[in-house]
Amino acid sequence: MPSASTGASTIVGASAATAVRTEAAPLEVVPVDSRMTPGGPGYRRMSLALFLAGVATFALLYSTQALLPLISGDFGVTASTASWTVSAATGALALFVLPLSALSERFGRRTSMTVSLAIAVAVGLLVPFAPSVGWLVALRAVQGAALAGLPVSAMAYLAEEVRPKALITAIGLFVAGNSVGGMSGRVITGWVAQEWGWRVALGTIGLIAVGCAVAFRLLLPAPKHFKAGSLRPAVLVRTVRGHLANPLLRRLYAIGALFMTVFGAVYTVIGYRLTDAPFSLPQGIIGSIFLVYLVGTVSASTAGKLVGRLGRRGALYLAGGTTTAGLLVSLADSLPLILLGLVLITAGFFAGHAVASSSVSHTAKEGRAQASALYQSAYYLGSSAGGTLGAVAFHAGGWAGTVALGLLAVLGVVTITVVGSHAARTQRRLVAVQH
After folding, report:
1. Which of 49, 139, 377, 406 has an alpha carbon within 20 to 30 A of 324's alpha carbon?
2. Phi and psi of 120, rounded to 5°?
3. Quick check: 289 and 345 in contact, CB under 8 A?
4. What's the pTM value of the predicted model, to 2 decimals?
């Protein structure tokens, strides 16, 4: 049918825009969305690059967690002292993620991720030579601070370069890389440490991270939608204040912290429980326990479908319920039931984390790096608190003490989600009355 009969004609040019002629507007330019989408140019390379970055990040960040009993024995320190080799890294990441997000806004996402990963890898090659537990904790803190620039920049990169409908899936793949890194790092260190000691195990992880870092830099497409921001402190403070004034973002930050408190507590302490009677498992078998992270890989990568069926709050309720079931099942003095409990805890945690973190990127319309930085800060503060408090609870009340801490954290997640649901219904009623 001729364009005159429809009231519109289309002019196709070489630029990334389409000119549309209408009766109301003689010539209206409608920009074409050039952001990446599944199956489109660059999406697979981007997904693989950030997957490998996630692998390196979690492998390095939690490299000592499966080795804590060996570190305790080698240096003659308690579980709570050894746990600082994990808590120092996650705590430093939490403290540095916000200032490094400002550098990401100024110098670009890809540059920030590359520099952060390069420094963390270099420190990772020094960690095996720590002469004392104090030096080990200090080097791990530096490593955590360096890694702070990676997750926040990755979230911002995805929010800018991927179409909104594909964002949850893309972030889920990045989180899945985290789970693979956390799993492979612990499994590899467990078996290597059983044969050659924890220092060789940490050196092995450092070398694996080198390979991931190189591949990441070669694969990641150059950003096309990044706009440099300001480094002025006043601008950063104003942006952060705006995010913290948003009640939805505040709830998401708290949810991320509480989920990670559970996860940090469980996986910091589980090695001690399984080395004690009645299990008395060797280090290699304990490291293999972390294969349950593969469940997290699946639950994180399918978070988008879960949200599509249940909504964001429904997905969070399911994640919280799954985590609670896992905590309760793990109380049994049966290795198969403990493994089932870990499977449920891991599935619930990674699903909840993927939903909460993608919701932050979806909610923030400006200053996405700072919005993601605040989430990451809360998330890793939860990890640091969970590792330390989980060890203290284990020392005071055994595994039941650690489970009690986890249940309190999940109760916080559910309470916050209920409050959010009530606030959303109230907002909808107010909008309906106004109209």
Report:
1. 377
2. -60, -40
3. no
4. 0.71
